[in-house]
TrEMBL record:
<keyword id="KW-0004">4Fe-4S</keyword>
<dbReference type="GO" id="GO:0019288">
    <property type="term" value="P:isopentenyl diphosphate biosynthetic process, methylerythritol 4-phosphate pathway"/>
</dbReference>
<dbReference type="GO" id="GO:0046429">
    <property type="term" value="F:4-hydroxy-3-methylbut-2-en-1-yl diphosphate synthase activity (ferredoxin)"/>
</dbReference>
<feature type="domain" description="IspG TIM-barrel">
    <location>
        <begin position="10"/>
        <end position="250"/>
    </location>
</feature>
<comment type="similarity">
    <text>Belongs to the IspG family.</text>
</comment>
<dbReference type="GO" id="GO:0051539">
    <property type="term" value="F:4 iron, 4 sulfur cluster binding"/>
</dbReference>
<keyword id="KW-0414">Isoprene biosynthesis</keyword>
<keyword id="KW-0408">Iron</keyword>
<feature type="binding site">
    <location>
        <position position="303"/>
    </location>
    <ligand>
        <name>[4Fe-4S] cluster</name>
    </ligand>
</feature>
<dbReference type="InterPro" id="IPR058578">
    <property type="entry name" value="IspG_TIM"/>
</dbReference>
<dbReference type="InterPro" id="IPR045854">
    <property type="entry name" value="NO2/SO3_Rdtase_4Fe4S_sf"/>
</dbReference>
<dbReference type="GO" id="GO:0016114">
    <property type="term" value="P:terpenoid biosynthetic process"/>
</dbReference>
<keyword id="KW-0560">Oxidoreductase</keyword>
<feature type="domain" description="IspG C-terminal">
    <location>
        <begin position="264"/>
        <end position="351"/>
    </location>
</feature>
<protein>
    <recommendedName>
        <fullName>4-hydroxy-3-methylbut-2-en-1-yl diphosphate synthase (flavodoxin)</fullName>
        <ecNumber>1.17.7.3</ecNumber>
    </recommendedName>
</protein>
<keyword id="KW-0479">Metal-binding</keyword>
<feature type="binding site">
    <location>
        <position position="268"/>
    </location>
    <ligand>
        <name>[4Fe-4S] cluster</name>
    </ligand>
</feature>
Length: 360
């Protein structure tokens, strides 16, 4: 029996043209790591994220120069942009006035209800949602004291406290994130929160680390929650180029069959039967297809003996042989191809497949 995922019903909010929650597809986000006031560098990075499939991007807004830069950045990008604010409500208002599509701030940290209501009025006037982002490392002192440290229960209480502040200003365009750097607390906190609210949830494991630990923690944390039906938008956090975050985000969604995006590559681990440098072949194919969004299943196998059979479900695939490999589709051999031409021939087939998909 395939895994059946029943997504929890949440309220819909809109970040620019992207719906989050309310049954919309789980969206993939990332965050720039350029200095936001460097408009050229930030725009360039966002354009690369767009190509990788990023659907919502967040930028840090540490000062007024960053808030003002949003106007120029927005004029050169097509995906919605969220301004990440800490402590200073004036930055939130300036970012909104510069055209941000959403704000990420915690109302309990901006200096009282008068300031909260000013930010809310500004968000309402422009139809912007606000993400409350609770981090395990910055819980309120009274909560830490009551729960004896950072706990999932304390994180949830903190989030709901921020929610109440926004609701008291008659504002409900809210989504919530609850991030810890460990999988266990992150998953427990989101599970608990999901029982207590129908607001859409932004899911991720924060400060997950470099490539290997970051991918493992994110895949486990985000994956467990998505398998529970929890999560309306995701961000993988890696100490790497943010483009890698987007790539890993889609791999998680593809692995759970929640979304199809871009090629799904199946490649064998190789064994003593392998007659081709498969690591190199797989890497070249992956790199060449990095910006392709066509959902196509591709197999890259080490040998003709087992390759096509093991990859019967692939739309197209290649397998190595003794100097000569094969091209196959849905497990059927199409033709023999010399090893040095295998990658090129496979990429031509993927291109043909993509073009055929677009022709009704
Ligand atoms: Fe080994 Fe061939 Fe299977 Fe790859 S496809 S693991 S080379 S038997």
């Amino acid at each position: 029996m395939p895994l059946e995922i029943h997504r929890k019903t949440t309220r819909a909010i809109h970040v620019g043209r992207v719906q989050v929650g309310g049954g919309a597809p789980v969206s993939v986000q990332s965050m720039t790591n350029t200095s936001t006031e460097d408009v050229a560098a930030t725009t360039d990075q966002i354009c690369r994220l767009q190509l990788a499939g990023c659907e919502i991007v967040r930028v840090a807004v540490p000062d007024m120069a960053a808030a003002r830069a949003i106007r120029s950045i927005k004029s050169n990008i097509t995906i919605p942009l969220i301004a990440d604010i800490h402590f200073d409500y004036r930055l939130a208002i300036a970012a909104a006035e510069s055209g941000a599509d959403g704000l990420r701030l915690n109302p309990g940290n901006i200096g009282g209800m008068k300031k909260v209501s000013e930010v809310v009025r500004c968000a309402k006037d422009r139809g912007l949602p606000i993400r409350i982002g609770v981090n395990a490392g910055s819980l309120e002192k009274d909560i830490l004291k009551r729960y004896g440290g950072v706990t999932a229960e304390g994180m949830v209480e903190s989030a709901l406290r921020h929610v109440e502040m926004l609701r008291s200003c008659d504002f409900d365009q809210i989504k919530i994130s609850l991030k810890a750097s460990d999988v266990s607390r992150t998953v427990s906190a989101y599970r608990l929160l999901s029982e207590k609210t129908d607001l859409p949830l932004h899911v991720g494991v924060t400060e997950a680390g470099g490539l290997y630990p970051g991918i493992v923690k994110s895949a486990l944390g985000i994956g467990m929650l998505l398998a529970d039906g929890i999560g309306d938008t995701i961000r993988v956090s890696l100490t790497r180029d943010p483009g890698e975050e987007v790539r890993v985000g889609y791999e998680i969604l593809k692995a759970l069959a929640i979304r199809r995006h871009g090629p799904e590559i199946v490649s064998c681990p190789t064994c003593g039967r392998c007659k081709i440098n498969l690591f190199d072949v797989a890497e070249r194919v992956e790199k060449a297809l990095i910006t392709v969004s066509t959902p196509i299943k591709i197999a890259i196998m080490g040998c003709v003996v087992n390759g096509p059979g093991e990859a019967r479900e692939a739309d197209v695939g290649i397998a190595g042989g003794d100097g000569i490999g094969i091209l196959f589709k849905k497990g059927k051999v199409i033709r023999k191809v010399p090893h040095e031409q295998l990658v090129e021939v496979l990429l031509e087939e993927v291109d043909r497949f993509s073009r055929n998909l677009k022709v009704p």
